[in-house]
Structure formats: structure tokens, C-alpha cells
Write a sequence for this structure.
């Protein structure tokens, strides 16, 4: 008869490459009958062998394992995660490949799969559990259904490492107490009062006996009162006037304190994506020397070009193209023309990327996501449009995988079309060196240089602002990129060449 306690990692393919230590553990109890738990077998990574009899319902020290480490991102220095929800309940039968729960990581929600067949005996970290550290036990599975009841009151060990059994700790002799004898108290010598020096008249405060008593009863320092009697003597009326003035000030202070105390507010807990976004943006503004370049691009030709393509799309059963799809394509081609903007800063060198991978900012109820369109310069407009729609849908459903947002080299953020923002400056998404902020299009009056019949015409202009890392992109290089981008926007047919 033997039992084994195992620590299981969820599938490696489910773990984000750029997120660190986002695995939790499952304890597995194997039974072949009987109640003898005298052997703890070595299994998995770094699982230590136990000696002697251990009670599985109270001792978890032998089940600790050293887990795999994933690549660490610059913005993530804590290996914690949250349990979004359990898809299996206690007592359910589980099979290899079935999803046990959804784990909320720094950037997305990943699925945790079962590795072996059995039964889910105990859920230790339920739905919504937050701040789960690497190595913490989140659930227990058993091989036999009859063993489920054995883990009804199971609780894992709270200690970080296996310690000696309590019996060993109790058997250690306590250090002998040192007896200390107090020295006999000295006989107090009678103190003879010495006549004090007569205080000078300059330091004395003259007050009537009644005023002194009234001040003492109300804990009013006489030094704070100016006397109105002869030679500045403090009278009873002076104390009463002081108390009356203080009474008028007290209700005002009390009312202000009450207003501050009874503010109506709601505390909203931080989500993982909100924490990471805050950390990365703070890092960006504190460490990256931003500068901004803004240009107005005329989009009349772009809108006509888009309308023509959408007619072709509808005729062939495809989906309509958005202005943002054309912006992504133009940005990708401009990066090919000016590759210095498709780079990252390191302490030893500037890394220039050969791939043009465009991150697209997507706002959701859970926070800001930036899924990536890989090799956008090589893809057609229809392909880019389909990928953007799919990734935006996954982001809003909180189901992005690591490969959906990793590996970007440039970011596009558009607040013009969805929200009507005319112009704004975006914060660079590290380790990238630039981000393009796209505003809304507006109609403007344009004077004609050589008027024949009319002196002006109406044109639509869209403002775009490029945020650059000055360590990587000089001002002239950023201006060169904007010039190339503007040319693609104003002559959109060239994007098809």
C-alpha cells in the first residue's frame, strides 16, 4: 500500500513567454487502498523526499516543488496571479487536456489544463483569489473517487520551506532560565527643599486668582491670553472672551472634518492588467526621453480609396475596411522606408528589427490591451482588417494568448475614429522607440493658390502625432518617418505597389 503526493505544473504551451512564473501547483493524491501514508515519493521538479509518517490533511511540507521559470519582462518583477474562475467543481472527474480553471496573468487570462486523469477533491484557491504566489497550492486532485472525503479539511502548509516536525520542535529542551536577583533598594535620603530663586517680574504672568482657576479648569494656557487689567493683569473676563472665541471656531473645524469623513466613494480593486499597464507607463515616462512630432494629413483621397475597396469587399463577401486598417498598413510601409524608427534601445546597442510588427491599442472594460499584427508590411489590407477585428474581439473577451500581444516593434493608438479626439500625445510602449497617436478627421477651408472660378475648397485633414524615444530616434529621423507616412496616406494607391 503506498501513497504519493505530487506537484503538477500546467501545460508549458499555456504559459506566456514574457511573463514570469505564472504557474500554480496541483497536489495529486494517489491511492492503492489503506490508510498508510508512510512514504512520500520523489516526483517532478525539486520535490523532496519525506521521512516518517505525515498526515496529508495537515502537512504539506513534502509537496513543495521548484517550478519552471519563464522569461521575465522588464515591467513585471512579482510572480503573482489571480484565479479568474474554476471550470471544474469539487468532486468532478477530470481528464488530461481538460481545462480546470482560468488564471489571470499580467496581460491576459490563460487556461490551466489537467495533466492526468482523476477527481478534483479540494479547491483551495477559489474564484477571484488574488495575489497567488508561485508555488502556492491551489487545488488537490485524487486518483480514486473514494479518496475525495479525505481532503475535506485539507489545508496546505503556510511555511515557505519544509521545517522539522512539531514533535521534534517540542522535544528540544528549552534553554535554562537565568535567575536574576534584584539588588536591594537603596534607602532614600531625605531631601531637603532648597529655597528657590525669586522669579524676575519679566517672566511672571499677572492674573487674578479667579482668572487662574477658570483657565486651569478649561485647560487654557495663560501665556496665550493678553490681559486687559492694570499692568496687563489677566482678568476673569479675558478668560471668558478667549473661551467664547474658541467656541465659535470649533464648530467650523468639526463641520469640515465631518465633511471629509463622510465622502461618498467606492474602492475598485486593481486588476492584473491595470497594475501592469500602470507599471509600464510609469517606467516609460520616467526612463524614456519623449518628444513629439505632429503633422496634418489630408485624407480625401484615402476616404475615396477606402470606399472603392469596400465596394469590392462587399461584392466578394468580405468585411469592410476601416480607416485604422489603412493607417496600420501605411505605418508599416513607412517603417520599412525608415527602419531607424523600427528599433529599441539597450544599454549596449540599438536593436533594429527586420520584422514590422504593429501593436494596436484596444480599450476594454478590463483595461488597455495591445494585440499585435505581425509582418504588417507584408500583409494585404483585407488580411490586416480581419486580424484586427479578431484580436479586438479576443481582447474584449479577455481571451488573448501571449502570442497575440508579444513581439511588437511599433504601436498605433487611435482615439479619433471611436472617440472624436482631435489630437493627443501617446506614451511609448517599452521597449519600443515610437508610438503613433491618430486623431479624428475634420473638414477645413483651403485657399487655392491659383483661383479660377473659386478661391477656396473644402478638404478633410487628420492630425497624427509621433511620440519618439530621443535616445533612438533623432528629430530629423522622426520627421522623415512622418513624411513617408503622410505620403502613403495622401496617395493610398501607392500602398498596393
Amino acid at each position: 500500500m503506498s501513497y504519493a503526493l505530487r506537484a503538477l505544473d500546467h501545460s508549458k504551451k499555456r504559459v506566456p513567454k514574457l511573463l514570469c512564473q505564472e504557474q500554480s501547483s496541483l497536489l495529486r493524491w494517489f491511492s492503492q487502498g489503506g490508510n498508510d501514508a508512510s512514504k512520500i515519493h520523489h516526483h517532478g521538479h525539486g520535490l523532496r523526499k519525506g521521512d516518517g509518517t505525515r498526515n496529508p490533511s495537515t502537512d504539506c511540507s513534502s509537496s513543495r516543488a521548484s517550478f519552471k521559470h519563464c522569461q521575465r519582462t522588464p515591467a513585471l518583477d512579482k510572480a503573482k496571479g489571480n484565479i479568474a474562475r474554476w471550470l471544474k467543481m469539487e468532486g468532478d472527474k477530470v481528464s488530461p487536456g481538460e481545462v480546470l480553471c482560468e488564471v489571470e496573468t499580467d496581460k491576459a487570462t490563460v487556461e490551466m489544463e489537467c495533466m492526468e486523469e482523476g477527481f478534483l477533491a479540494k479547491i483551495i484557491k477559489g474564484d477571484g483569489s488574488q495575489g497567488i504566489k508561485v508555488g502556492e497550492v491551489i487545488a488537490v486532485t485524487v486518483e480514486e473517487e473514494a479518496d475525495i472525503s479525505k481532503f475535506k479539511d485539507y489545508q496546505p502548509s503556510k511555511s515557505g520551506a519544509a521545517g522539522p516536525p512539531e514533535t521534534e520542535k517540542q522535544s528540544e529542551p528549552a534553554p535554562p532560565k537565568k535567575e536574576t536577583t534584584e539588588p536591594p533598594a537603596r534607602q532614600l535620603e531625605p531631601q531637603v527643599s532648597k529655597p528657590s530663586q525669586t522669579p524676575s517680574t519679566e517672566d511672571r504672568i499677572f492674573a487674578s486668582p479667579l482668572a487662574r482657576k477658570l483657565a486651569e479648569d478649561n485647560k487654557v494656557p495663560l501665556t496665550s491670553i493678553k490681559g486687559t487689567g492694570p499692568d496687563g493683569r489677566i482678568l476673569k473676563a479675558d478668560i471668558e472672551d478667549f473661551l467664547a472665541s474658541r467656541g465659535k471656531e470649533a464648530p467650523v473645524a468639526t463641520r469640515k472634518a465631518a465633511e471629509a469623513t463622510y465622502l461618498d466613494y467606492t474602492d475598485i480593486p486593481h486588476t492584473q492588467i491595470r497594475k501592469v499597464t500602470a507599471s509600464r507607463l510609469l517606467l516609460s515616462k520616467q526612463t524614456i526621453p519623449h518628444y513629439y512630432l505632429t503633422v496634418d494629413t489630408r485624407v480625401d483621397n484615402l476616404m475615396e480609396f477606402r470606399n472603392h475597396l469596400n465596394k469590392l469587399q462587399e461584392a466578394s463577401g468580405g468585411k469592410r475596411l476601416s480607416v485604422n486598417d489603412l493607417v496600420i498598413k501605411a505605418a508599416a510601409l513607412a517603417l520599412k522606408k525608415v527602419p531607424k524608427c523600427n528599433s529599441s534601445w539597450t544599454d549596449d546597442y540599438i536593436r533594429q528589427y527586420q520584422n514590422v510588427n504593429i501593436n494596436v491599442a484596444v480599450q476594454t472594460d478590463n483595461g488597455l490591451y495591445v494585440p499585435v499584427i505581425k509582418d504588417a508590411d507584408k500583409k494585404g489590407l483585407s488580411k490586416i482588417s480581419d486580424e484586427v477585428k479578431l484580436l479586438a474581439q479576443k481582447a474584449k473577451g479577455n481571451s488573448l494568448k501571449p502570442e497575440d500581444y508579444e513581439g511588437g516593434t511599433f504601436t498605433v493608438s487611435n482615439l479619433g475614429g471611436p472617440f472624436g479626439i482631435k489630437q493627443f500625445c501617446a506614451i511609448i510602449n517599452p521597449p519600443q522607440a515610437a508610438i503613433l497617436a491618430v486623431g479624428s478627421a475634420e473638414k477645413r477651408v483651403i485657399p487655392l493658390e491659383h483661383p479660377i472660378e473659386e478661391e477656396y475648397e473644402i478638404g478633410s485633414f487628420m492630425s497624427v502625432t509621433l511620440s519618439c524615444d530621443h535616445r533612438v530616434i533623432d528629430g530629423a529621423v522622426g520627421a522623415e518617418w512622418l513624411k513617408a507616412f503622410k505620403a502613403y496616406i495622401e496617395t493610398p494607391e501607392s500602398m498596393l505597389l
Observations:
- The chain has ten helices and 19 strands.
- The two ends are 74 Å apart (CA to CA).
- The longest helix spans residues 236-261.
- The longest strand covers residues 434-447.
